[in-house]
């Protein structure tokens, strides 16, 4: 049973990588993924909030993925108000608040 779960996780990772490879503007990011069943956690850093949001949407669209937790850090320099929020909440919180997506921590289908 555990072997089947590992095969499914590997298949999901392959599909995620293939989906991101089809979008050249997302290839320069330094990210990694943790797959746990139908949930995917995004880790690493990206250039800007747009890229973090685009990666999150792309991963959420992969068949079999029903939840995405976005823990990506934003590398780009931020304005003073965003820097203050970054200090208070961390990079991921700044990205989520800027994107303005409901719960902001998970995509669910």
Please tell me about this protein's structure.
This is BON domain-containing protein. It comes from Pendulispora brunnea. InterPro entries: BON_dom (IPR007055), Transpt-assoc_nodulatn_dom_bac (IPR014004). By secondary structure, the chain is an alpha/beta fold. It has one domain: Histidine-containing Protein, Chain: A (2-Layer Sandwich). The chain is built from four helices and five strands. Strands 1, 2, 3, 4 and 5 form a five-stranded mixed β-sheet that branches. Helix 2 crosses helix 4 and helix 3 crosses helix 4. The protein is globular, with a radius of gyration of 14 Å. The protein starts with a helix and ends with a strand. The C terminus is likely disordered.
Question: Which features would summarize this protein structure in a list?
Answer:
109 residues; alpha/beta; 4 helices; 5 strands; BON domain-containing protein; BON_dom; Transpt-assoc_nodulatn_dom_bac
